[in-house]
Amino acid sequence: MRSALAPLTCVLAIASTVALAACAEQVGPPATPAGTTPPTTTTAATRPLPTTTTAASAATGTAPAGLAQSTATARPPTGALELAVSQRGLTIGGARLLPLPQPPAWIEGFAAAHKRGGGGGLFVEPLASAVSAARDGRHAAKLAVAPDVPYRVLVEVLFTLGQSEVSTVSLLVTRADGSLAAIEHEAPRAAPTDLAAQAEAMAAELAVLGGGSRPGARAAPAQPATVVLARNGVVVSAGGKRLAPGCADPGRTAGLAPGPTLARREGSDYDWAALTACAATARDAAPADRINLTATPETDFQTLVHAIDALRPSFPRVQFAIAR
Fold it and tell me: How many CB atoms lie within 10 A of CB 238?
C-alpha cells in the first residue's frame, strides 16, 4: 500500500504570482482499497470546455463559460498564447491537442505515453512541441481550466509550460459579477542549492500528514508556511511545525493527537473562513508572505482557487507543491 507521505517532485509558486520551480520529492494520497475508486470533490458530469477570451468577452469584460469562480482582481493579458483544459482534453490556440483519461482515471494526469518518464512524469511532450511551434516569441500564456480539472492535470500543464520558455501564465477565472479575471503566475529561475533546501524543508513540513509527530528533515530557517489540503481537512504549518487542531499553539507538535489543523467532515467542503483566520495566525509565525500549498491529486481546480482566495489576505504569494 502507498504511504500517506510520498515524495515531492516540483514546486510551483503562485501569487497574484505563481512561480514554477522544482524539488526532489512528491506527496501523494493514501492508497485506495481494491475495488473502490478515489473520492472526488466534484461530480463526474461533463462540463463545458472552457475557452480563452473571445473578442466579445474581451470587449465586454465578461468571462467565458466553464471557469472557476474567484475573488482575484488581476486582468488577463492580451496577445498571450491561449490554452484550455477540461474533461474533453487540452486545446492550444482553439485546436484540440490531447485527450484526457475520463474520471476517475484522470487524477493520474495525461496518458503515460504522452509524458517523458511515463506515468510518473510531469513533462507532457506533445504539449511542449505544440507550444514551441505556436509561441512565436511569446513568453506569456492564458490557461482556461474547467472547475473540475484535478490538481495532477493542472501541475503537469504548468510544469510543461514552465519548461517550454513560457515564463508567465494567467489562470483564467470568473468573478461573482461575471467579469473575467486571472490568477497570474511566473516561472522563476531558481538555483539548485535553493531548490534542494526548499525540498528538504517542504518534506519536513509534509511529515505532519503522517500524524504530526514523525521526525522529518530539518527545515531551513526562512522556509515559508505550509498548507496541505488533505481529505479529512487542512493541515497548516509554520516554521516547519504544525499548528494544533483548531489552529492553536503554533510550533507545538509533541503530544498532539493526529489530525488536521482544520477538520473537514466527510461530504462537506473545507471551512474557507476558518482557513483565512488560521492563515493570519500562521503569518505571525512565518518568515515571509509566501505559503506552500499542496493537495491530493483528485483535488479539483475550483477547490484550489478557493484555497488561494482564502490565503490571499495574509499570503499574497502561494506556492504549489506538485502531488500525484
Answer: 24
- State the Cα–Cα distance between residues 124 and 222, nearest whole angstrom: 33
The single-letter code of the amino acid at 51 is T
pLDDT in tens, 130-176: 999 999 999 999 999 999 999 999 989 999 999 999 988 999 999 99
What does the buried/exposed string (b/e) look like for 204-235 if buried means 16 or more CB atoms within 10 Å of the residue's CB?
A: bbbbbbeebeeebeebbeebbbbbbbbbebbb
**Residue 201 · residue 226 · CB < 8 Å:** no
- pLDDT for the residue numbered 7: 36
**Every domain of the chain and the residues it spans:** 55-186, 191-321
CA 288 to CA 153: how far, in whole Å? 29
Q: 170 vs 74, 166, 292, 302, 307, CA distance in Å? A: 9, 11, 19, 15, 17
Enumerate helices (H) and strands (E) in the chain, giving the number of each. Answer: 6, 14
3-class state of residue 274 by DSSP: helix
